[in-house]
Write a sequence for this structure.
């Protein structure tokens, strides 16, 4: 038991060291707002889809499919409870601040912080199950989150709901998993190399 806690502690310490490195790079002016904006786009549109698809590169298993469905359901319940708590607990005289506070209560740092932690502690299987929750996060973000911040349901669109990196990459990964489809090494290995950036890049961004 102690050894397990020690391993977890070491992995978490690595993440915080990387965050500290990001902070140091900011102070030394190695990183600036423009650089970090580019890194953020890279993580969102390239690194995260790669790590999700790579994590689904496995033989189909009914037990894992059941676990994936359970993770998705937990993600749905989690966000619904957060929405209920946000509307029940957050009351502010200033409408804009109330929206921001409710948004912050409902939506966690599901991708940036969770995926690196899952990858370090549990490997690809952690990302496999975590991807289901991230899909729910993105669906909620581009529906409830958009209505909350804009005040108008007309801003919600099927394109934004379904064609965002978090949802699209999970859909592709699930299709590969259900079919037990394996990408050829010439495609998989570059994706795996990009996926390995999942831990350092988000931590540097957070530290900045």
């Amino acid at each position: 038991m102690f050894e397990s806690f020690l391993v977890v502690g070491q992995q978490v310490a690595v993440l915080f060291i990387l965050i500290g490195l990001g902070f140091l790079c900011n102070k030394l002016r190695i990183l600036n707002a423009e650089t970090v904006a580019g890194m953020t786009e890279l993580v969102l549109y390239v690194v995260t889809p790669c790590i999700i698809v790579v994590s689904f590169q496995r033989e189909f298993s009914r037990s894992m499919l059941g676990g994936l469905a359970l993770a998705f359901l937990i993600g749905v319940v989690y966000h619904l409870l957060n929405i209920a708590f946000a509307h029940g607990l957050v009351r502010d005289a200033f409408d804009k601040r109330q929206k921001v506070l409710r948004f912050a209560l409902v939506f966690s740092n599901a991708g940036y912080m969770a995926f690196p932690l899952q990858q370090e502690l549990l490997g690809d299987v952690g990302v496999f199950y975590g991807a289901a929750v991230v899909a729910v996060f993105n669906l909620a973000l581009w529906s409830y989150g958009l209505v909350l911040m804009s005040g108008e349901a007309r801003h919600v669109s099927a394109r934004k709901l379904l064609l965002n990196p978090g949802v699209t990459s999970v859909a592709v990964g699930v299709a590969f998993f259900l079919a037990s489809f394996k990408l050829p090494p010439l495609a998989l290995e570059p994706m795996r190399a990009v996926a390995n950036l999942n831990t350092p890049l988000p931590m540097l961004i957070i530290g900045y």
